[in-house]
UniProtKB/TrEMBL annotation:
Primary location recorded for the protein, binned into one broad class: membrane
Residue intervals passing through the bilayer: 340-364, 371-388, 400-423, 480-499
Pfam families per UniProt: Neur_chan_LBD, Neur_chan_memb
Organism: Mytilus coruscus (Sea mussel)
Protein name: CHRNN
InterPro entries in the cross-refs: DNA_brk_join_enz (IPR011010), Integrase-like_cat_sf (IPR013762), Neur_chan_lig-bd (IPR006202), Neur_chan_lig-bd_sf (IPR036734), Neur_channel (IPR006201), Neuro-gated_channel_TM_sf (IPR036719), Neuro_actylchol_rec (IPR038050), Neurotrans-gated_channel_TM (IPR006029)
Length: 509
């Protein structure tokens, strides 16, 4: 399982390489390692941490992405609104530390904190907070920083600079999740909108100063307000106060707000688990008329550049539609369920259970286990019915799920089998001083004649004496007839289910 991201509680500023004194104020060019700075031995020392009023500077002498020991400075802003601000916590840690030398992170006995120990502490902390520690590791911190930077609208170069990536490998750390909860009817996805418009009030002549593009925080200039039209938790505005805007010299403003969005998506589980869902995300301007703002989609589909494949659902296709009256954009996404897990853990066990029901008629009546066997199988199928109902929405619109109809049919068949077994045993164990009725004699004779005609392996038909028919014969013939009847019914029910989930049954859709 890939590790999950751990989002940073503070804002990460672009990391800059440390400069020698003579290069301060010049372009950021890394310097060569000195004799004291041996590659591979760059452990962080307490003196390489500088905590200021609003931020902290942490010098990393060398790392996996800086094996030559150029060193970089990580700048963290203080977060006054968070109780887990790393700058504040680092200040408390330095105050508790009783020595100024050695490694920065160490135990009370001055031994260095190893990566294994840090990973173990991280997992225990996550377990204490209620998270599943198996879904996280030390890479989750790097994944969380990359994902948060992506959601903040930073461009490719800024993300690479913050994570010290030199190639497009950073894309593998960005988690654009897509989760669909069909029981709650909620689609959760992570992504961003790329919104552009022209603002002539902030254009300039780039030939005078050579500046083509500048970046500004979003609260500085005007921006349109948009909402998610089908948000799961009420009205949700599309904005993030710490998102940057990119302004070009010709007045073109590009705004890329990213966030986690929960939208309403009512599931159609009629062919569960072989179902396909179409979920929509609606976006429209808030407080503006169609004469004031005209929304034009850039693409005719949802761009899956950083899409991380989901385990349960497969992203098939997407489209974008527009409502001219409301200037509403509707992003449609088609999802297909990966059914193999449900086939192996739900459908096949159900089929095995229902076919086991047939063998109850092969048990000797003298064993005394026939009723217990039939009831046990009935209860097992009822358990699978409960499991299935927990994974399906409590609705019959547009129709009942095929798996629910199959399970209900199997429960009914199992209940009928229990009644048949009880009836058969009642006749089988009836005392011989009660004469066999004429109806039962006729039933036994007809059953024997039909079996003799159907059975082609016999050279001649057996002759039966009607006077020799006993109640045990009646019980045996009931077992044979019921076993054949139930086998045919089970095969028909399962065949109808297969047809329904593949091409659909007329009258049900």
């Amino acid at each position: 399982m890939p590790p999950q991201p751990l989002m940073p509680p503070c804002r990460l500023l672009p990391q800059q390489p440390i400069l020698p004194p003579q290069q301060v104020g010049t372009p950021n060019v890394p310097h060569q390692p000195t004799e004291q700075q041996v590659p591979g031995q760059g452990c962080v020392q307490p003196g390489q941490l500088v905590i200021l009023y609003k931020m902290s500077h942490l010098v990393v002498p060398s790392s996996k992405t800086d094996q030559l020991g150029y060193s970089v400075t990580i700048i963290l802003e203080r977060n006054k609104t968070s109780s887990i601000c790393p700058v504040h916590l680092m200040s408390d840690y330095i105050a508790m530390r009783y020595k100024d030398d050695g490694h920065l992170f160490c135990h009370a006995n001055e031994k260095t904190l190893t990566r294994y120990q840090f990973s173990n502490i991280l997992k225990k902390t996550l377990a204490f907070l209620g998270y599943n520690p198996s879904e996280f590791n030390t890479h989750s911190l790097r994944i969380g920083a990359a994902t948060q930077s992506f959601l903040d609208g930073l461009d490719e170069n800024s993300i690479k600079l913050k994570g010290r990536w030199k190639s497009a490998a950073y894309k593998g750390y960005i988690r654009t999740n897509l989760e669909f909860n069909e029981v709650e009817g909620k689609l959760s996805l992570t992504g961003y909108f790329s919104i552009s418009w022209v603002d002539q009030t902030i254009s300039w002549n780039s030939t005078e100063n050579g500046i083509e593009v500048v970046t500004l925080e979003e609260h500085i200039i005007w921006k349109p307000s948009f909402i998610i039209g089908n948000s799961y938790d009420g009205v949700k505005f599309i904005h993030k106060d710490d998102t940057v805007m990119r302004v070009q010299s010709n007045g073109v403003v590009t705004w890329t707000p990213g966030d986690n969005y929960d939208v309403v998506c009512n599931a159609d589980v009629s062919r569960y688990p072989f179902d396909t869902q179409i979920c929509k995300l609606q976006m429209l301007p808030w407080g503006y008329t169609s004469e004031e703002i005209v929304v034009v989609p850039i693409y005719e589909y949802v761009v899956p550049w950083w899409f991380n494949p989901q385990k349960t659902w497969e992203f098939i296709e997407s489209s974008v539609a527009k409502d001219e009256d409301l200037q509403l954009l509707e992003f449609s996404m088609k999802l297909k369920r990966n059914p193999m897990f449900f086939v192996l853990n739900l459908i096949l066990p159900i089929c095995v259970m229902i076919f086991l029901n047939i063998f109850v008629f092969l048990l000797p009546p003298e064993s005394g286990e026939r009723v217990g066997y039939a009831v046990t199988v009935l209860l097992a199928i009822a358990v699978f019915l409960t499991i299935s109902s927990d994974n399906l929405p409590a609705t019959s619109s547009p129709r009942i799920s095929s798996i629910s109809l199959l399970l209900f049919s199997d429960v009914v068949i199992s209940a009928i089998i229990v009644l048949m077994v009880i009836l058969s045993l009642r006749y089988y164990h009836r005392e011989g001083n009660y004469p066999v009725s004429t109806f039962m004699r006729g039933f036994v004779n007809v059953s024997r004649i039909l079996r003799c005609k159907v059975c082609c392996c016999r050279g001649k038909q057996e002759k039966y004496n009607e006077n020799d028919i006993k109640w045990t014969d009646v019980g045996k013939e009931i077992d044979i007839v019921c076993g054949i009847f139930i086998t045919v019914v089970i095969c028909i029910v399962n065949a109808l289910y297969i047809i329904d989930v593949t091409i659909g049954l007329p009258g049900l859709d």
